[in-house]
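Hi P.,

Sorry for the delay on this. The queue was packed all week, but I finally got your sequence through. Input first:
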Amino acid sequence: MTATEVLITGGAGFIGSHLVRGWLAEGARVRVLDNFLTGRRENLADVQGQPGLTIIEGDIRDAATVETAMRGVRWVQHQAAMPSVPRSVAEPHLSLSIGVAGTLNILEAARRHGVERVVYASSSSIYGDTPVLPKTESMVPGPLSPYAVSKLAGEQLCRVWTHLHGLPTVALRYFNVFGPRQDPGSPYSAVIPRFATAALAGDPPVIYGDGDQTRDFTFIDNVVLANRLACTAAEPAWGRAMNIAGGRRISLLDLCEKIAVLCGRPGLQPRNEAPRPGDVRHSLADVALAEELLGARTVVDLDEGLARTVAWYKSA
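Then the structure:
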């Protein structure tokens, strides 16, 4: 039996590289398309050279490159983006060109090649700062950054291509994904790798704002499972967007305390700086729709995920 061909755009990124490993472990043949603008070659170093893996260095904004990458593909996991709210504020044209024009190229090539499923990486940022919690998929979106606008536009393109062209798509709204190999070295890095590496060095982690803001974090293994389930989800899921999260929120102050303890630095106090433009105050997901339509579930909870993540940074 011929192995399934899976195209992972942004496969050298944090989430994408975990998907690559997951699919290789399932026996699939994996094609990575990444321009390495934010993706890191070291994220794939331990699997590079495996017979089931092909890495294509190219940009999803280039239609000819996408056309070549799409040939013979069964499933697409579209992760490619410029994954940063602050950077999208600083570079809106870049964020929107990748997120919108690039996604259009993916969908059109997938349609032409008869791809069976496109799974699109969306974001909780599309909800904006609506005060109602938890966030449900029926809420009216209120994006506060170019990044969030690009993700919402990508969702809508997926929905339209499903309804216009019969291309099965599923959009997954990620809530604060974390885990090993998440890059702590950029000014745009996510909070958990920044907190962990600072605490391990004995430095006060930086919190933008007062620290009472809350987030719904989900460990990377839960996201990998949801992506795999989305590839085979039945028709009621097609053209839909759904939350992928832990369904539990924690304040950044409490998160900082947990990480400090895991790093052997109990009592380490954070340093507060001014809030960043585009950041939302509170976030919590209702995950019932993904449970119903995908069978998605939490396989690693927050505490276990933090322990695994800190252990990885200790050994890195």
